[in-house]
Amino acid sequence: MADGTTPAFDAELTDAVDARGAGAKLRSLGKINPRLAPQLARTMLGKARDNDSAPAFSAYCETKGFEFTSAWAANNIPFVAPLLRDFMARRPAGGPKTRYMEIGAYEGRNLAFMDWMFPDRLDVTVIDPWFDEGLNPEEKYLAVEPRFHRNMARTTFGKVATHKGFSTYELPKMLEAGDKFDLIYVDGSHTALAVMIDLCCCASLLEVGGMMVLDDYWHDISEIGGPGVKQAVDHFHAAFGRYFEVAAVYRQVALVKTAEIPR
Q1: Mean pLDDT, the chain, as a whole number?
Q2: Beta strands 181-186 and 98-103, pairing class
Q3: Which of 10, 21, 222, 250 is the Cys-Cys partner for 2 at CB 3.0 to 4.6 Å?
Q4: Whole-angstrom Cα distance, residue 263 to residue 260?
């Protein structure tokens, strides 16, 4: 997950700039998936862009006293805010809460954004390992998890179902339990293997008509080396694209499930 410690791969820690160098961006663009290219063009050239929500959300965070140490991914907001509004507009405000799962929560900034957009409308599930002595022993994460919980206490969520662990272990348990979600945000490990497992599991956990938002699509090398997010998303779409409508492509890919996948 992007956390500011590996600037060659993380999004910039400001609201406006992607920290990856021009060479990395050109390399990614040179490998654009032709299946996604038309929607990329429509997304980037379209007029449905919200340039007001990022500064408004930043001001909201200051007012609420959230403890965020970075503002990475704020450059997604102009694209994702209209997309999310359209998705939620199709769901009755007085009906059941939207079942929302987030993979890779870190300090909870994206969750706070979702709560700001849709207060009292989400039933939230989170997967994140934070600090794990055996599998994720970086000491910086010792402070991140308590900060996450303090931030969540400032939201309208009430109870957040938190699964502390790696998504590659936690998602199969959810499949076995028969869990279902309406909206899923995937921003966990950036290795192609882990992302592919996340996508395949989430595709089954997602209800028909639900939407998955896949972060950091252009990262074609993971933080630890080897293939990254882009390869996993491209191969997933090649295999299962017929079951999804591509709603948007930019730094993220948004997929709406149109039919159940045979299992």
Answers
A1: 87
A2: parallel
A3: 10
A4: 9
- Six token digits for residue 24: 């990395």
Please write the tens of the pLDDT for every residue from 51-70.
999 999 999 999 999 999 98
- Compute φ and ψ for 21, nearest 5 degrees: -70, 165
Of all helices (H) and strands (E), which one includes residue 29?
helix 22-30
Give the residue carrying structure tokens 């929500």.
Answer: 53
**Residue 26, Cβ neighbours under 10 Å: how many?**
10
Q: Which long-range contacts (CB under 8 A, 24 or more apart) does 229-235 make?
A: 229/190, 229/192, 229/195, 230/28, 230/31, 230/33, 231/192, 232/192, 232/193, 232/195, 232/196, 232/199, 233/33, 233/195, 233/199, 234/33, 234/35, 234/36, 235/192, 235/196
Render pLDDT for 200-244 as a digit per residue (tens, 0 to 9): 999 999 999 999 999 999 888 888 889 999 999 999 999 999 999
